[in-house]
Amino acid sequence: MNLRRLRYFLGTAAEGSISRAAQSYGIAQPALTRQIQLLEADIGAQLFERSPRGLRLTDTGQFLKDALELPLSEIETALRSARSYSTQIKASLTIGMPPSISELFGQRVIARLRSELPNIALRIVEQDSSKLALDLSRRLIDTAVLVSVIPEQRVSRAQVLAEPLMLVGAPTSPLLAERAVTVRRLEDIPLILPSGPSGLRINLERAAEAAGIKIAPVMEVDSIELTKRLVADGAAFTILPERAFRQETVRGDLAGIPVIEPRLTQPVLWAVRPDWRLPRAIYNAVERVVIEEWYDAVTSGTWPAEWVFDFSILSIPFAKPIAKD
Fold this sequence. Notes:
The protein is an alpha/beta fold. It has helices at 3-15, 18-25, 29-43, 59-86, 99-116, 129-137, 199-211, 224-232, 246-251, 280-299, and strands at residues 48-51, 54-57, 91-97, 120-126, 143-147, 156-169, 181-182, 192-193, 219-220, 238-241, 255-260, 265-272, 306-307.
């Protein structure tokens, strides 16, 4: 029986509402409804019925609640003790991030991990996502943030963000006075792009293929900083996520507009090497810290992106409050 599913059942019973319980656990309401349905299917009986005041336990549901509360509390006490013990384990952990993402929230992740897991020796590797994905499969690093690159099947991964991509150029460009630009128009726009197989280039080429066009850059530059300087001088345009040129926008050096039809985004993933070598409790603690700091960066506006991660797959319930619309 899925332990998380039992927690969700007790939480829903306590709240008397799927929506309030979903908010409490930090998961989407449909995901929580699905977990309750799966539990009912396992038991073979309905656990809740609707009433004017919300959800009410059926007789079976009340029996299950009474039977679960004490043993589940004891199990969770044991788990908390095991997690506390795990923080005493001395081990090393290598996290990979693309340089622009490391700059954005790497420092805050490291600070949290050093505070909560002081016996873990941390190593941060900054590389392009393609190289990080390869290093994960080779077991050279433990976890990584990947942009637009899907690692091989045996590498565990989950998409966390959908990051909008924008056409970026000098603020004086008449093209950037428009509200948006379509993918098809990119064929006729002089672009400076990284050489393949960068994550952004792969993502852009997939969109171009779907639109029936070919994009041939006027220049290939693998340095984001150099690309931004060239673009600011009016030499051409480039494609970047908003986070990558936000400071230049504030200074008035660069401007950007969305790429649409289709809306151009790139996935950002959390990936873990095959056969995790450290105690599972350590991974759970690392995962929780990274996801919490990631969520804070997005909801605070520091990282402009759409949050798509399903909190229900976390091994430890999400500890941060979920932002309301």
